[in-house]
């Protein structure tokens, strides 16, 4: 049994890697010595966002919209071929579109990215993960998967779906030695929260977050790293909240 706490030489794919949690995760895995396939949509500034990594970082970038099944499959197959396989798949790509329940366009876009996109990447990666001795899937959900707020119903529903899908993967893939876990970030300083006024963030954190602040993407990335270590071989179907205690405060 491999109980190493190193991912050096592991082969990973990270979606949503141009910014926020996805960027922090791709950078951290590369710093830890993994081969990283960094995916994000065209126009995301993906290559520029990773330009500051050390020259010896083993990162391959691919411009892929996770709503396009053909492009997802092509990118996964290409990266697996270059890396000689896959061990880790981390789904960070996501959108949050404030909208009323009846906004069909927002619902369709949100589901296509947040839920169906996760399914596409996992499905394309499975043939390679099945050959790994330390196969790990981590899907980034949200504390919205544990509750709800008004006017983000599509986002909330999609993240409930991600959590349910992750649990189903854990049960279905466990016999194949593949673990699947979900991360549920709370209030984090990312592009999704960038338009919230600083004063509003501080007020929210004081009232709702026991640690009294918003989190940083790097803090979520380190939680993800913990779940993809070879030594995390008996953790599957878990939902890890990274929210400063927000979801447990009454």
Q: How would you explain this protein's 3D organization?
A:
With 250 residues, the chain is of the alpha/beta class. It has a single domain (11-243), classed as 3-Layer(aba) Sandwich (Rossmann fold), CATH 3.40.50.720. The chain contains 8 helices and 7 strands, in the order E-H-E-H-E-H-E-H-H-E-H-E-H-H-E. It has helices spanning 20-31, 46-49, 69-83, 104-114, 116-129, 153-173, 198-208, 217-228, and strands at residues 11-15, 35-40, 59-63, 88-91, 135-140, 178-185, 239-242. A 7-stranded parallel sheet has the order 3-2-1-4-5-6-7, with helices on both faces. Helix 1 crosses helix 8 (217-228), helix 3 (69-83) runs parallel beside helix 5 (116-129) and helix 4 (104-114) packs parallel to helix 6. The longest helix has 21 residues, at 153-173. The N and C termini lie far apart (41 Å). The mean pLDDT is 96.
Short description:
The protein has 250 residues and is of the alpha/beta class.
Number of domains: 1
- Residues in β-strands, percent: 15-25%
Helix/strand class: alpha/beta
Give the ordered list of helices and strands: EHEHEHEHHEHEHHE
Shape: globular
Parts with pLDDT < 50 across at least 5 consecutive residues: none
Percent helix range: 40-55%
CATH H-level name... which superfamily? NAD(P)-binding Rossmann-like Domain
Which strand order does the major sheet show?
3-2-1-4-5-6-7
Largest sheet descriptor: 7 strands, parallel
Under CATH at level 1, the class stands as Alpha Beta
Number of helices: 8
Please give a handful of descriptors for the protein shown.
250 residues; Rossmann fold; alpha/beta; 7 strands; seven-stranded parallel beta sheet; 8 helices
